[in-house]
Amino acid sequence: MLRNPVVYFATIAVFVAIGVFAWNVTARAGYESAEYEVIETDGNYEIREYPDLMLVATTTQIDAQGRDGSFMKLFRYISGANESEQKISMTTPVFMENDKADSQVQMGFVMPKDVTVRGVPSPTGSDVDVRKRSGGRFAVLRFSGRLNAQLAKESEAKLRVWMESKGLVAAHDKSADTASASGVETAAYDPPFTPGPLRRNEVLIRLK
């Protein structure tokens, strides 16, 4: 007979939480991730240097979470819907960059290094294109939760306050009307079924 059911269930909950966390970290570690060099760390804030990256991208809305078919367009590309009929490994993170319209972003999968070296095959599907993400220095804030437009905006605001405290200047005019003018990206590292508190999300602002 259980003498203290509260302690028992609390113990079970702790072990379940540890198991879920370990599973999530292991699952994330199974993917090649975009490389970067950490220049400075301040809690959840970092300054990073990224090399040039090749992405396959399509337009979506951040709140759609890929449910509008955008994720599947990119997934079909890496599953063989390209001119070489080549299967390409999934990587992390999925980058999302502000588009001309406030509600739209460019969702992009990072191409693995070996594919980039050999040459990224052209897509055969519609509304998918290959583009270069130019390298450079970025201010970054890491945060958890289910990524949506509101959470992204709140995190961007926090990052800009931190940048100001450090004397860091964004590379782009926030008000400019071009697809890449904002210089602001979000990055998601986890599968859709990952619990919000365990998710790794980031907002990145390109620096001068």
UniProtKB/TrEMBL annotation:
User: InterPro entries under this entry?
Assistant: Reg_factor_effector_dom_sf, SOUL_heme-bd
Keyword Iron in record:
no
Supply the SUPFAM superfamilies for this chain: Probable bacterial effector-binding domain
Q: Which residues cross the membrane?
A: 6-25
- PANTHER family named in the record: HEME-BINDING PROTEIN 2, HEME-BINDING PROTEIN-RELATED
What is this protein's record name?
SOUL heme-binding protein
Keyword field: Membrane, Transmembrane, Transmembrane helix
On the tree of life, the source organism's domain of life is Bacteria
